[in-house]
UniProtKB/TrEMBL annotation:
GO cellular component, one term: cytosol
Listed GO MF terms: methenyltetrahydrofolate cyclohydrolase activity; methylenetetrahydrofolate dehydrogenase (NADP+) activity
Occurrences of domain Tetrahydrofolate dehydrogenase/cyclohydrolase NAD(P)-binding (ranges): 139-281
Name under which the protein is recorded: Bifunctional protein FolD
Pfam families (UniProt xref): THF_DHG_CYH, THF_DHG_CYH_C
CDD domains documented for this protein: NAD_bind_m-THF_DH_Cyclohyd
Gene for this chain: folD
Organism, as annotated: Paenibacillus sacheonensis
Occurrences of domain Tetrahydrofolate dehydrogenase/cyclohydrolase catalytic (ranges): 6-120
Positions that bind NADP(+): G165, R166, S167, I231
Subunit comment: Homodimer.
Length: 286
């Protein structure tokens, strides 16, 4: 039996229609969600991401600002810009594109963004709220993973989820979100012994390690839901996930392709966060 593909593009498009409808309602009240994206330097992948975010804002009727700064911009200059955006009423969400040049301290920059405008979900206050289960702006890729699973009609509660990878951007937050959905969660990483044996007990397997085709069928329980967060460029220029798609296809029950699985969800969840931030900031004023 071949696994059912989880089509991230179709799910993402459906969510964007919902966001567009909500945005139109807000616009009728004179509120336009605003997103500021800050890009420091000339990283090619970052430039592509920033372009995609700008395009998404245009499609959904958001107000957007893109601040492109030279690679040699000082940390003080960047923090001054963030301070200004924190105080700017037309901006509800601030995203500083990572990675930053080496002379800028990433943590200081993330900490400087107002938690109310932290649409990336990386601020310590946002992370704390995520862990204790309070309402917060969620990290975009992990939130997208949960939406993909739910909107495919898969029940998370009571399932055993194994997350391979423990990064602050994906592994840890997606584990917390799976816990919130009442899964039993195991986190595996580079020091985990018997990783394939553990992974093979998963009803839901989420992989985010940044190594092309590293996870084969020996990691997958027959019928499992496999969510591949990895996106790696091969020497031939093609994109590949962390999961060996062809190898796993006949074992898994559901699987996300790369590209076209988790990828489209990330920017859509960023848009959803910006809309939510706009609503919350408006409510705080009233």
């Amino acid at each position: 039996m071949t696994a059912q593909r989880i089509e991230g593009k179709a799910i993402s498009d459906a969510i964007r229609i919902e966001i567009g409808e909500e945005t139109a309602k807000l616009a009728a009240q004179g509120i336009v969600p605003g997103l500021a994206v800050v890009l420091v330097g000339e990283d090619p992948a970052s430039k592509v991401y920033v372009g995609s975010k700008e395009k998404a804002c245009q499609q959904l009727g958001f107000y957007s600002e893109v601040h492109k700064l030279a690679a040699e911009t000082s940390q003080e200059e960047l923090l001054a810009l963030i301070d200004r955006l924190n105080r700017q009423d037309t901006i509800h969400g601030i995203l500083v594109q990572l990675p930053l040049p080496k002379h800028i301290d990433e943590k200081s920059v993330i900490d400087a963004i107002s938690a109310a405008k932290d649409v990336d979900g990386f601020h310590p206050v946002s992370v704390g709220n995520l862990v204790i289960g309070d309402d917060s702006l969620l990290p975009c890729t992990p939130a997208g993973v949960i939406e993909l699973i739910k909107r495919t009609g898969i029940e998370i509660a009571g399932k055993h989820a194994v997350v391979i990878g423990r990064s602050n951007i994906v592994g840890k937050p997606v584990s917390m979100l799976l816990l919130r959905e009442h899964a039993t969660v195991t986190i595996c990483h580079s020091r985990t012994a018997n990783m394939a044996d553990l992974a093979k007990t998963a009803d839901i397997l989420v992989v985010a390690i940044g190594k092309a085709n590293a996870i084969g069928r020996e990691f997958v329980k027959p019928g499992a839901v496999v969510i591949d967060v990895g996106i790696n460029r091969l020497e031939n220029g093609k994109l590949a996930g962390d999961v060996n798609y062809e190898d796993v296809l006949d074992t898994a029950g559901y699987i996300t392709p790369v590209p076209g699985g988790v990828g489209p969800m990330t920017i859509t969840m960023l848009m959803q966060n910006t809309l939510k931030a706009a609503k919350q900031q408006q409510a705080a004023k009233e």
